[in-house]
Amino acid sequence: MKEYEVIIGLEVHAELSTNTKIYCNCSTSFGADPNTHCCPICTGMPGTLPVLNEKVVEYAVKAGLATNCEISRFSKQDRKNYFYPDLPKAFQTSQYDLPLCLGGHIDINVDGNKKSIGITRIHIEEDAGKLIHDAYTGDTLVDMNRCAVPLIEIVSEPDIRSADEAIAYMQTLKSILEYLEVCDCKMQEGSLRCDVNLSVRPVGQKEFGTRTETKNLNSFKAIHNSIEFEIKRQIEVLENGGKIYQETRRFDDAKGVGYAMRTKEDAQDYRYFPEPDLAPIILSDEYINDIKNSLPEMPHIKKERYIKEFGLPEYDAEILTASKKTAYFFEKANAICNNPKAVSNWIMGDFARMLNEKEIEIDESEVTEENLACLITLIDKGTISSKIAKQVFEDMFETGENAKEIVEKKGLVQMSDEGAIKEIVQRIVDANPQSVADYKAGKDRAIGFMVGQIMKETKGKANPQIVNKLLLEIINK
Amino acid sequence: MDLYSLTLTEVAKKIKNKEVTIKEVLDSVYSRIKEVEPKVDAYLTLTQELAYDRAEKLQQRLDNGEDIGILGGVPVAIKDNICTNGVKTTCASKMLDNFTPIYSATVVKKLEEAGAIIVGKTNMDEFAMGSSTETAFAKDTKNPWDLTRVPGGSSGGSAAAVSADMAFASLGSDTGGSIRQPASYCSVVGLKPTYGLVSRFGLIAFASSLDQIGPFAKTVEDAALMLNVLAGHDKMDTTSANLEKVDYTEALVNDIKGKVVGIPTDFITDGINKDVRAAYDEAIETLKNAGAQIKEITLEYAKYSLATYYIIATAEASSNLGRYDGIKYGYRTKDFNDLDELYTKSRTEGFGPEVKRRIMLGTYVLSSGYYDAYYKRAQQVRTLIVENFKKAFEECDVIMIPTAPNTAFKFGAHDASPLEMYLEDIYTVPVNMAGLPGISVPGGFDTNGMPIGIQFIAKAFDEKNLLQVAYAFEQNTTYHNERPTIEEGK
């Protein structure tokens, strides 16, 4: 078998988190009853006209600046004409030959290797509605709530070479959009989704192979799996002497299988032309500079600062800054307890695990920054042991109660009174002569057993350092 | 004298001065409608009940000493492609025969705020596509000057309604001449304002970059008054211009001494009817005698207007009319097996032949591989036409040309060759292509007694100059005083 090189370009659709739609004042919020967030304009009633939401331009320019694009001083909107029941005007207003942002790049990091991925363009457009199939009546119904929700489409250069790079690119892009607060990036709600353009070619071949486009992937897992699937499929076809057809494909993530939807031959002719109801978008240098100056600290800059300012390892800094919410949580908690490594450990460790299990985001958790800082302070002061702290944290996570209150209520304050501990240690030693003998015979494990017994006796509250010290003193006496 | 035969200005004054009640005026108009509408068929919907309700309320306010607006109590008609909240708006198409909007066009709101009363919605060519109102789905509107002839189009109903004294003024829309040409055919004043002067919100789009709403009226004075109400920026239409408010009635002075009137000799050539030509030559003399300076100018690109118009207008129409798909509102075929069939049959059955012809033309010129040769080229020519007019207006204040090369023709005259009818728009289309204001004023009659219109064109947003010259022309002629017989002609 020949060796193949994989060529991938991504088209990412990000729903902008403006309060209102792109051409009318309807709400963009997700999850409302069908057809309650729509009006004559976004449902394309006869005689209505669009009015461009200026926030959409601002958000798109932010995304363009943060991805090192040139911002067009003159751009226009175009109509993309096609028939579908979720598209009430029978055209999608998009941008064709003069998009808002052109020629940028973002840097990604895969297994410690940095790589720059080119951004061809970013343009604004409107989303379509949703079709709902009523299994009971067999009818197809249209929900127009999502009609004309603003989107940006971010088109990458074909610079991506593997599923891992694609995921790293998506993660970096997601983190940038979150930092900018232009998209909530909730992939499960479809507010961030992507199309994968993929081709393979034998290593050394200059021309690109024929590419396919897999549409509408809305989880990292689906992106990853669909790419792996498509690479394998294309190579197999070529190895068997077959031909790759330019086609649009879908990927069924549950089954892990991709399939062709339509080929280039029956591709639609969208008959793009300039939208006559909307004036061109003309931006001044001043407007662009004002936005540039208002951009927040971007993740890669923040990461460097964490390493320098807090002395965190690069690994920690990378993870903490990947999400704006996590970084915000970290900064706020650390400002209170001033123990960056401890805060980082908690966020990346037990906390992250529990958030994952519950499938929620850090800002949706019951645990507040103040509360985590309080817990860390209790450990730092020796009021509780690290072991107890884990138990306290689980309570905090479940109930949202304050760490201090939990500790007090449950009587979890660490025992550091040597006299009291010594008494218990002596009792355990006396009751386990066999273990003492084992230890003296060189079996270190016997110590562990006795420490366990002591902790059990003290309900885990005994200061472990003191326990260890006293136990050895007594046995070795 | 019957109230319905007054001008808008006259009747508004009588209402304001309480010489007549609004109900009396409305009674007069509806009795006139009862009398002549069966012959003319100008209206698709009459809104009698709403009109009388409104008349009563306005009268109460007037009696309480309130100002009820400059059109207070005046009955007007609205073309059926302009949305009226709660009143059917059909575009004279089977496709929208059951469509009632839940919003009013900005112009309708403005008319109502100014005190006007809507008496009904007028017939038109289907989706404003045509020059004779023959493409209307439900019925033909007849020319009040000869019921065997067309009223022109596409705003034929609005022109006929004013011409036959069934409304004091009306609204039309003009994409390639749809206000001015029927005004010419029916001997009324028809004004197409500068693109962007009047909001298009609520006007059911034919060709968005060309469509413009404007008034029909019995006199230039009435048209100026209507424009005062209609003009102005609308935040719902971002293509509407944000300019300072102008009082267009200030232009109504019968004095054009020193005004330079451009005559594009290279544009008015052989295709023109000899009676129209004679009326045009007479109009030149009239203006000369009134003190205007006549100047020959050239408009070498104007002759390409029609060809480019039928590319741009149909392209935009093919996209604008995509929404009539049988899914959300309007006509849906009774019988279909899948989505494609639902689309195909609904559109095949819902649209008439002229609309389908234009959708196909427009779809073709936008198709991949043809876009550059047609649409893009047409836009380039359009730019040349705009520049052409700009240059011409460096030499003159207004341009005068006939409104149409012919007078009203018999029903069915162009059935065999629909493209021939497109030529009726040869003098009106360049004005839309350049986005300029144009007005048609009664300018004579042909040997059959059919009206001839004279058209004036001005610089963008220079409606004042336009109205001033039109007013002077009107004041120095008597054609606007002639009334139609509402009978079949010879």
Characteristics:
heterodimer, A: 477 residues, alpha+beta, Arc Repressor Mutant, subunit A, three-stranded antiparallel beta sheet, 41% helix, elongated, B: 490 residues, alpha/beta, Amidase signature (AS) enzymes, 15 helices, 37% helix, globular
Summarize the structure.
With 477 residues, chain A is an alpha+beta fold.
Distinct helical segment count of chain A: 15
Mean pLDDT across all residues of chain B, rounded? 96
CATH class of one domain in chain B: Alpha Beta
Number of domains of chain A: 3
Helix and strand string of chain B, N-terminal first? HHEHEHEHEHEEHEHEHHHHEHHEEH
Structural class of chain B: alpha/beta
Secondary structure: helix percent of chain B: 25-40%
Task: State the largest interface.
Answer: A-B, 28 and 43 residues
CATH architecture of one domain in chain B: Alpha-Beta Complex
Q: Give the total of beta strands of chain B.
A: 11
Number of E strands of chain A: 16
Per the principal axes of the C-alpha atoms, what is the gross shape of chain B? globular
Strand percent estimate of chain A: 15-25%
What kind of oligomer do you see?
A: heterodimer
Overall 3D form of chain A: elongated
Secondary structure: helix percent of chain A: 40-55%
Taking all Cα atoms into account, the compactness measure Rg of chain A is 29 Å
| Overall average pLDDT of chain A | 92
Sheet with the most strands of chain A? 9 strands, mixed
CATH superfamily of one domain in chain B: Amidase signature (AS) domain
Q: Low-confidence stretches of chain B at least 5 residues in length (pLDDT < 50)? A: none
